[in-house]
Design a protein that fits this description.
heterodimer; A: about 140 residues; mainly alpha; 9 helices; B: about 425 residues; alpha/beta; 5-stranded parallel sheet; 4-stranded parallel sheet; 12 helices; disordered N terminus; binds flavin-adenine dinucleotide
C-alpha cells in the first residue's frame, strides 16, 4: 500500500530496513512512556512517525485502506473480526495486545500455525492500522 | 439517459483521474444499480460488501440455485465425515440483514452496449456489472464425455451438489477389491490441492469399509501441484499400498460401458471413475465478451477486477486469469477489492495503494487431521498483478490442530460470504 507505508508495494525494501522498522515497533511497545501515550489515533501517528515509519495518509485514505486490509482477516476471523468459530474474535482486542501478538507471531515467540507466516507479510504501519481498526470495535455484538 | 446515471458513468470513466483530483466524498447517486451474477464464494461476498461499504447502492444478486452448497469440505462427504446437508446454506441473511436483492434465475445473455441482462423471462438493466460465475467444464478433449448420459454415469463431483452424492453412492456400492480411478486436469483448475485431498478422503473411506480396494490417480500435471511432500507422506503412512499415482497422464477418452479410461500411456480399468475435466470461465463470461486469455479465462485489473476488455464489467473468482489460486478464499478476497473499488468510484472517493490479502487452504487427509497452505499476496504495480509477499508456507505434516482450524475457517468464510 504505497502511501500507507512509504514502501513500494511488491518491493518491500532491503531486509535491514524492514527489520529496523520492526525493531522500532517493538521499541514503541516496550517503552513505558510510549505505551502510556498509546490511546488514540493521534498517538499512533506520533509513535510511528517518531520511530521512522512514515504516516502520510489522511483519515479518509486510511479508512478506505484499513477497511479493505482488515476485511482479509474475515475469512478466518469473521466479518469485522467477529469470529463464529474457534479462531479468536479480533473485534475489540486492545491495540497493544493485537500488535504484540503480531510481533510475537512474527518472531516465533508465540507459536502458531498460519499466523507465524502471515504476520510477517504485513508492514508495521499496516499492523498498527489494523490494531486501531479492531480496537475501535465493541468486543461483543455483531457490528457487521 | 437519466442525469443521475450519466453522472455516475462519468465518475466511473474518470477512473484514476479522480484519485489525483481528490474530490470531496459524496454519497453514491441513489438508484445506482450494481448487478452481480453468481452467488458463490465471489459473488455473494461482493454483494454483501457492496452494501456494507456502499449502503446507497442498489445491489441485485442473480443466482440460479436456491441453495449455496460449499465445495470446500465436500471431499469430506466422500470420506464420510460430513454430509452434503452440513454444507448447504441459504441466502436469506443477505437480503434480511444487508438488503441485497436476490433473484433466483438464469442469466442467459448480456448486452454490454445497452447494459442489460437477459433472464429467463425478463430483462434487467445495470449501471455496473460484476460477473462471478465460477467455472464450466471443457469436454472437447475427452472422447466419450460429450454424451450427457456418460457425464451422469461418471460424475466429476467438482461442483458440490447431486454429483457429490452420486459419487459417494458409487463408492459405497463398489465391491471390496474394486478400483477407484480419478483424473486431474492440467493447471489451472479450481482448487489445486483439492484432487489430492479427494484421493485421501476416498482412501479413508475404502481403508475401513473395503480394505482390499485400490485407487488410481491419473494426473495430467508433471507432479502433485500443491502440498506434495505432505500428501505423499499422508498417502504412505495412512494408506500404504492403496493409492497408485501416475503423473503426466492426460485422459483422452472414457468408455462408461467397459469402465475404461485412456491416456497416451494406455488404458486403465476401474469400477468407479471420477474424471475432473479441464475447466474454463463459466459460459456467461464468454457471452459477456470478457474471456481473453487462452479462450478460457478473463484478464482483469487487479485494483478493481474490472475486465481489461470491457469497461463497466468486473470479473472475480475462479473465472479470472491470475497467479492467484482458484479458491473460495481468493474469490472472497477478490470480491472485497472489487466492492471497495466500485464503492469508491460510485462515491467519487479515491482508493490509495494496492490491496494486500491472504489465502489459506486446508486439506483433510482423514476425518481428523489436515494440512494448511498459507500465502499473503500484495499488489505489485510493476507487473500489475498480485504477488506472493514471501512465498507460501505449508504445515510440516497433517495435524489435528489444522483440522480444528479448517472447521473454523469454513464456518467463518461461510458466514462472511452469506451472513
Ligand atoms: C472438492 C473441492 C474442494 C474445495 N476446497 C476448497 C477449500 O478448502 N478452500 C477454498 O478456498 N476453496 C476450495 N475449493 C474451491 C472453491 O470452491 C472455488 O474456488 C470457489 O467456489 C470459487 O468461487 P466463485 O464465486 O468463482 O464460483 P462459485 O462458488 O462456483 O460460484 C459461481 C456461482 O455462479 C452461479 N452461476 C453461474 N452462471 C450463472 C448464470 N448464467 N446465471 C445464474 N447463476 C449463475 C453458479 O450457480 C454458482 O453458484 C474447492 C473446490 C472443490 C471442487
Amino acid at each position: 500500500m504505497g502511501a500507507d507505508t512509504g514502501q513500494t508495494p511488491g518491493a518491500p525494501g532491503p531486509r535491514w530496513q524492514r527489520q529496523s522498522r520492526w525493531c522500532c515497533l517493538l521499541a514503541v511497545l516496550g517503552s513505558p512512556a510510549a505505551v502510556g501515550a498509546e490511546t488514540g489515533e493521534a498517538s499512533t501517528r506520533f509513535n510511528l512517525a517518531t520511530h521512522g515509519i512514515e504516516e502520510t495518509l489522511s483519515t479518509e485514505d486510511k479508512v478506505a485502506n484499513v477497511r479493505l486490509l482488515t476485511a482479509s482477516c474475515a475469512a478466518c476471523h469473521g466479518t469485522n473480526g467477529y469470529s463464529v468459530g474457534i479462531t479468536p474474535v479480533l473485534a475489540g482486542l486492545g491495540r497493544d495486545y493485537f500488535i504484540q501478538q503480531m510481533v510475537d507471531f512474527r518472531s516465533g515467540a508465540r507459536p502458531g500455525t498460519v499466523m507465524n507466516h502471515n504476520a510477517s507479510a504485513y508492514t508495521p504501519a499496516e499492523i498498527a492500522a489494523m490494531a486501531d481498526f479492531f480496537a475501535a470495535l465493541p468486543r461483543t455484538g455483531c457490528d457487521r | 439517459m437519466p442525469i443521475k446515471r450519466r453522472r455516475f458513468l462519468q465518475a466511473l470513466s474518470a477512473g484514476a483521474g479522480l484519485a489525483t483530483l481528490g474530490l470531496p466524498a459524496v454519497r453514491a447517486a441513489k438508484g445506482t444499480r450494481i448487478v452481480v451474477i453468481g452467488g458463490g464464494f465471489g459473488g455473494a461476498t461482493a454483494a454483501k460488501y457492496l452494501r456494507l461499504w456502499g449502503p446507497d447502492l442498489e445491489v441485485i444478486l442473480i443466482e440460479r440455485n436456491r441453495d449455496f452448497i460449499s465445495c470446500p469440505q465436500s471431499n469430506l462427504v466422500l470420506g464420510g465425515s460430513r454430509t452434503l446437508k452440513d454444507l448447504t446454506l441459504g441466502y436469506e441473511t443477505l437480503t434480511a440483514r444487508h438488503g441485497v436483492q436476490l433473484v433466483h434465475d438464469e442469466v442467459n445473455g448480456i448486452d454490454p452496449q445497452r447494459q442489460t441482462l437477459a433472464l429467463s423471462e425478463k430483462e434487467i438493466s445495470y449501471d455496473r456489472l460484476v460477473i462471478a460465475p465460477g467455472i464450466d467444464f471443457v469436454y472437447d478433449g475427452i472422447a466419450g464425455l460429450e454424451d450427457p448420459a456418460v457425464r451422469e454415469a461418471i460424475p466429476h463431483a467438482w461442483k458440490a451438489g447431486p454429483q457429490t452424492i452420486a459419487l459417494r453412492q458409487q463408492l459405497e456400492a463398489m465391491p471390496n477389491g474394486g478400483r477407484f480411478l480419478m483424473s486431474i486436469p492440467r493447471m489451472p483448475y479450481r482448487c489445486p490441492p483439492g484432487p489430492y485431498e479427494r484421493a485421501c478422503q476416498v482412501a479413508f473411506f475404502l481403508r475401513y469399509s473395503k480394505p482390499k480396494a485400490r485407487i488410481t490417480v491419473l494426473d495430467a500435471n508433471p507432479g502433485i501441484v500443491a502440498k506434495q511432500d505432505q500428501f505423499l507422506e499422508a498417502w504412505e503412512e495412512k494408506y500404504p499400498g492403496i493409492i497408485e499415482y501416475h503423473p503426466n497422464q492426460e485422459v483422452t477418452a472414457v468408455d462408461s460401458a467397459t469402465r475404461t479410461v485412456t491416456t497416451a500411456a494406455g488404458k486403465f480399468r476401474a469400477d468407479v471413475i471420477n474424471i475432473i475435466p479441464p475447466q474454463r470461465a463459466a459460459a456467461i463470461a464468454h457471452s459477456a465478451g470478457v474471456v481473453n486469455v487462452d479462450a478460457r479465462w478473463c484478464d482483469v485489473d487487479f485494483l478493481s477486477y474490472e475486465s481489461t476488455t470491457r469497461k463497466n464489467i468486473h470479473v472475480i473468482g475462479d473465472a479470472i486469469a491470475s497467479t492467484l489460486p482458484k479458491s473460495g478464499h481468493m474469490a472472497n478476497a477478490e470480491a472485497k477489492v472489487c466492492a471497495a473499488a466500485i464503492v469508491a468510484m460510485a462515491t467519487d472517493q479515491r482508493l490509495v495503494g494496492g490491496p494486500v490479502f491472504a489465502n489459506t487452504c486446508y486439506s483433510h487427509v482423514n476425518a481428523s487431521e489436515a494440512i494448511h497452505i498459507s500465502n499473503v499476496y500484495r499488489y505489485d504495480p510493476v507487473s500489475r498483478s498480485m504477488q506472493s509477499v514471501h512465498g507460501n508456507m505449508v504445515s510440516e505434516q497433517a495435524t489435528r490442530l489444522d483440522a480444528y482450524y479448517a472447521r473454523a475457517w469454513a464456518m467463518n468464510i461461510w458466514s462472511d460470504v452469506l451472513d
